[in-house]
Design brief:
Layout lengths: L1 H5 L2 H44 L7 H39 L8 H4 L6 H29 L5 H25 L2
Length: about 180
């Protein structure tokens, strides 16, 4: 009976906070490494293409960027969702339970009020769009400009272009968060 008396709603909420902050931290590390991995993989595709002289290999870059870009975007959205949840749900519930006079988990709000935040968010969006959309579109365009472009691969490249446009739109859509 004593064990159940030690379990309070506040303790459960604090344990939840610890777990979701750990998840957020892990996702941030993973997301940030995706950017480096994408640049390395794209560089490898370009190097192999130049070395082999086979322009159709350029179409591997959009595939890499689409898969890793979508993964990056999903992780970024989950990172933001954790912050929203803490600010909008968890913090207010803990403040109510504890009778706190003020914001609980103030960092979740404080760091969003930085005067340079909007500029940083815009610059990060530009970096994301360059890495995951512009770079692979440069590869697609280079493929289109190469001699002897097979019609089937033109269709593939057009599908990649549409997919990259959707990914770019998603980056812009989530950039406001």
């Amino acid at each position: 009976m004593a064990a159940t008396e030690d379990v309070t709603e506040s303790k459960l909420l604090l344990a939840e906070y610890d777990r979701i902050k750990e998840e957020q931290k892990t996702r941030i590390g993973f997301r940030d490494n995706l950017l480096y991995f994408t640049l390395a993989a794209s560089t490898a595709v370009l190097a192999i293409t130049v070395q082999s002289g086979r322009a159709q290999l350029l179409l591997a870059a959009p595939v890499v960027c689409l898969v890793l870009g979508w993964t990056y975007l999903v992780n970024d959205e989950k990172i933001s969702a954790v912050g929203y949840y803490i600010r909008d749900q968890l913090g207010p519930r803990l403040a109510e339970l504890s009778g706190a006079h003020g914001t609980v988990f103030g960092w979740e709000i404080y760091h969003r009020d930085d005067a340079s935040r909007t500029t940083r968010k815009r610059l990060q969006t530009a970096v994301d769009l360059f890495t995951y959309v512009a770079l692979p579109m440069i590869c697609v365009t280079a493929f289109w400009c190469s001699p002897a472009v097979p019609p089937l691969l033109v269709i593939v490249s057009l599908a990649q272009t549409v997919a990259l446009a959707v990914l770019g739109w998603q980056f812009l859509r989530y950039a406001e968060r």
